[in-house]
């Protein structure tokens, strides 16, 4: 018996097309990220300054007072 020649079956598995990203999209993304980082830096700087001001008010002392026990022991020389 003669057999018919088998024809190959070819399947192409292609990924669905993705949306193209342009230069404008990259710039907007970079600028928004930089803006968020700048806002975060300003917020952290304000918090840090607030903590420093609060600590200074709590530990208020006269740096020129020789009887101050909180000083580092550095005094002006007597004349």
What keyword list fits this structure?
single chain
Q: What is the compact description of this entry?
A:
The chain is an all-alpha fold and 79 residues long.
Q: What's the average pLDDT?
A: 82
What share of the residues lie within helices? 40-55%
One letter per element, helices H and strands E, the order comes to: H
> Count of helices?
1
How many E-type strands?
0
Sheet/helix structural class: mainly alpha
Report low-confidence residues grouped into runs of 5 or more.
Answer: none
SSE blueprint:
Layout: H1 23-58
Structure commentary:
With 79 residues, the chain is an all-alpha fold. 46% of the residues lie in helices and 0% in strands. It is built from 1 helix and no strands. The chain has one helix at residues 23-58. The longest helix has 36 residues, at 23-58. It starts with 22 loop residues before the first helix and ends in a 21-residue tail after the last helix.
């Amino acid at each position: 018996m003669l057999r018919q020649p088998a024809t190959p079956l070819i399947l192409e598995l292609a990924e669905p097309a993705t949306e193209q990203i342009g230069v404008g999209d990259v710039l907007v993304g970079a600028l928004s990220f930089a803006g968020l980082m700048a806002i975060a830096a300003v917020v952290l700087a304000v918090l840090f300054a607030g903590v420093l001001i609060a600590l200074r008010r709590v530990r208020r002392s006269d740096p020129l007072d020789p009887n101050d026990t909180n000083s580092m022991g550095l005094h002006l020389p007597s004349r």
